[in-house]
Every structure is written in C-alpha cells, then in structure tokens.
Amino acid sequence: MAEDVKPRRRYHAPQRAERAAATRRAVLDAAYELFTRRGYAGTTVAQIAERAGVNVDTLYAAVGRKPALLREVVETAISGQDRAVPAEERDYVRAIRAAATAGEKIDLYAGALARIAPRTGPVFRALRDAATRDPDCAALHTEITRRRAANMLLFAVDLRATGELRADLTDDEVADIVWSMNAAEYYNLLVDDRGWTPQRYGAFLADAWRRLLLR
C-alpha cells in the first residue's frame, strides 16, 4: 500500500504548487489594481480577496496581511516577476555591467526604466501615500528608498570605471543625480501629468545623463 501512496503524492504535488502559484498571482494582481486605483487606505483585504476570487483566509495563507500584500506588490512590480529579484540578478543590470562604455550603460539603464516605470510608478505612488498613514508602510518606503540609493552608488562606480565621468562630480553626486531622476515622482510628473510617453521619458533620461555626467 505504501508503494501506491507515494506515486500519487508525487503526481499531485506539482498541481498543488501550480494552484498555489496561480492563487498568489491572482491575489497580487488584485492588490496591485486596487492599491493603485483606490490607494492603500481606500482598499480593504476583503475587497482584494473578492477581486482575486478567494476568501480572506486563503489570501492570508497565499501572501499575508495588508502590509505584506503591499510589500509583495512593490517587489514584484520592481522585478517584473512573481517574486523579488535582487538587483544584481536582473537581466538589464547584467547587461549594464557588461557594457564597455559609460554611454552604453546609461542608454541600457534608461531603456530599462522606460519599460519598468509604467508598472512601478503607480505602485510607488500608492506606497508613498500609505507611508504617511501606516508605520509598516513607512518602514517599507524607507527601505526601498535606501536600497535604490545604494544601487545608484554601485551604478556610479560602474560608470566611473569607464574613465568617462566628469572629474568634478563625485560618485555620491552622480548617484544622487541618477537617484532623483529615476524616482517614480519624476516619472509621474512627466508621463502622468505632462502626457509624455514612457519611451520619450527613457530617451530624455539617457540624453540628460549623458550631458550631465560624461566628460
């Protein structure tokens, strides 16, 4: 009898994993839609569960409570995948590190932002608003902000290694310039408020950073 049970468990395990992944994806999609449309404070867990087609207990088991939901929405928006991906493991970061010239690195990063910002811009706006009301969200906002700053310093160091950066700018200054201009607030101003396309936004960043940062 033991020999009969084991094959059934092996057969059903992938199906259970697929169902769990599909439930998690449905919950995160619903949370993204509602957080970015109604705001964090204006969205309840029950509304997210209803939108995802699950009950609240299933939602908690799949992702977690409301602050955890926002964290996962932010992380998956950044990575473009169903899980958080460290910066050094992202394809565009690897391409930037492999590029030979500072101009190529800048172009690659600006192009990546043009693809990423349409999904991160709305959720970062929801996070910024949530941070004014919820301590857990405020801590997440601070964490993401500091992580972005650290990544931009790595980018500045990578640019410096090409020998093409302006000598009168420190790596910290280069990082701060890029960090401020790649912020969701900057994207939202130009694209949402002024009607730019994401492609125009990316092309502008590439041109501006070349003019501002390179010799």
Oligomer: single chain
Q: Pairing-aware structural class of the strands and helices? A: mainly alpha
Q: Over all CA atoms, what is the radius of gyration?
A: 21 Å
Q: Look at the structure and give the mean pLDDT.
A: 92
Helix share bin: over 70%
User: Architecture of the largest domain, CATH level 2?
Assistant: Orthogonal Bundle
* Uncertain residue ranges: none
Number of domains: 2
Q: What order do the helices and strands follow?
A: HHHHHHHHHH
Summarize the structure.
The protein contains ten helices and no strands.
Structure explained in plain terms:
This protein is mostly helical and 215 residues long. It has 2 domains: 1-82, Arc Repressor Mutant, subunit A (Orthogonal Bundle), CATH 1.10.10.60; 86-215, Tetracycline Repressor, domain 2 (Orthogonal Bundle), CATH 1.10.357. Helices cover 78% and strands 0% of the residues. The chain has helices spanning 2-38, 45-52, 56-62, 66-79, 91-98, 102-131, 135-160, 171-181, 184-193, 198-213. Helix 1 packs across helix 2, helix 1 (2-38) crosses helix 6 and helix 6 packs across helix 10. The longest helix is centred in the N-terminal third of the chain and has 37 residues, at 2-38. The protein is elongated and about 60 Å long. The N and C termini lie far apart (75 Å).
